[in-house]
Amino acid sequence: MLVYVDDATSRLMELCFADTESTVDYFHATPRYLERHGKPMAFYSDRLSVSHVYARDRAQSGPGLSQFGRALRDLNIDSLCATSPQAKGRVERANGTLQDRLVKELRLRGLSTPAAAEPFLPLFMADYNRRFATPARVAYDAHRPLLPSEDLTEIFTFQELRRITAQLTVNYKRGLYVLEDSVANRRLRRTTALVSEAADGTVT
Q1: Full set of structural domains in the chain with CATH
Q2: 133 and which of 2, 11, 77, 99 could share a cystine (Cβ 3.0–4.6 Å)?
Q3: Considering the entire predicted model, what is its pTM?
Q4: Tens digits of residue pLDDT in 159-174
């Protein structure tokens, strides 16, 4: 499960069922958070691999950035990682306590699948926040509204630069994509194109 918590108040902001903490899962959950709450100043995670790659020279999305890290950068959202054992432990303990409570509530209601449990999550979050969230020291919401130019459907895609050949073709993974032979496209020969792949496999 992916858990989004406001660090200042311990308030649950978003919950999303996920088998693993994969890029696709973050691409699914994070836009929902942003549409409901706006853009935070930063996301704080206990997993470095969420937003960064270890072999920085192999990063496809920029120096040291994973695809999710690049998406956050495009939205002007900082990505912070818990690097100390104390910080990681804090995140893990909080998530462990939360998920333990959620599992017990789901069992009590006989909700055994993500599809069945999904409608219950808003009720669980409301009750959890009523019981455990604390007031912020400063009554100020640092979330920023999404800009009209920030298309989340486009931003949360797998993006890589590929070279356009003299024959107006682009190689991506195991596919060969052919550009229309037009005057405008001929000017693009031997330049680079940004290839975007959505979570459903659609390539543009």
Answers
A1: 2-132 (3.30.420.10), 157-197 (no CATH)
A2: 11
A3: 0.83
A4: 999 999 999 999 999 8
